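Q: Protein A?
A:
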Amino acid sequence: MRNWLKRLQIKGFVAGVLITVLLSGVMVAAASTGGVMREIFYGVNIIVNGRPLQADGIDRPFILDGRTFLPVRAISEALNVPVDWDGSTMTVHLGTGTAGRPLFETTPTSASSGITAVSGTMSGRSFNTIFRASATNMATSSTGWGEFNLNGQFSTISGVLGRLNDAAATSNIVFIGDNREIARFAVDGTTVAHEISVDVRGVLVLRVEILQNMVGFGASRAQIGFADPMLH
């Protein structure tokens, strides 16, 4: 019985990320000759901001041993709060937090092309990671992009935007969420490094494009950088 319950909890955690919330209710237990028979009660209703939450199948809340198990992913989505499961540390992350997650620790897609991430300086400031286009041929425009699986788990992406190598031509960084442009920023010869933030709530796949105008630049060097990008 114990092994069966353990499998039930693991299966529910993987499918819906279940978390235990202690309530004051008392669970019914029936004694038998072989020990104590543990019962599961599936009659729990969830109300989120006055509205019933439908949780079916493996996501159904239940009571076991006086504890109520709730589907935290379904509840967090109803509250529009990001949730993430880190299997390496066996940790559930709820909310945006303060530190966030580096963009490059998020699973990339195979569609990324012409993008690199290096440490270095931008506008006289040092950064651990600068997201920029790979080296390109001078006198032509170029595009590099990176795609990342966000799975709707984050609310914003932030970082520092600036110009590299004293670039003078106007280039752009574009944020595309699920094939829809959600933000665009221009960088030219007057741009100084500054913080930017983009709303990515509900985005499953984020594509970050760097569009460089190399015409008249006279060198095959990156012109625009997005430093220390973080997901929150």
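Q: Protein B?
A:
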Amino acid sequence: MKRIPAIKDVMTAFPYSVDAEKPLEDARTMMLEHDVHHLPVTQDGKLFGVITLSDIRLKSDPGHSGIAKGALVKDYTVADPYHVDLKEPLDNVLIHLSNYHIGSVVVMRGDRLAGMFTLRDACRVYGEYLREYCRPPLGGNDVA
């Protein structure tokens, strides 16, 4: 029987991050340039929260108050994000994401940012699992 991997084995290592005091546009630009939808937010070198491209877009849509001129990243950040240690088993993370309707987890090494794991990563990992463990055997012995 295979072991359940730790989050460190499947996370996106060394993720981009943004400082809480930066202009909101900096975060949006960074996400678009690097094709990411979640950014850890730091303040004074410590994890402060997470900002998502979806939240920025939602608040920009008609019918919402819009993004205030001069808005900072911290104004649109979800503070105290779900975060785990590098050694956290993947199944625990996946169940937590599902139970609490969360789109990402920040992975920490002590008090330092080590990685991110998002629903996009979960789909990638599951796809790889299916390819490895569920492909029919080669050799043409399939029943018609």
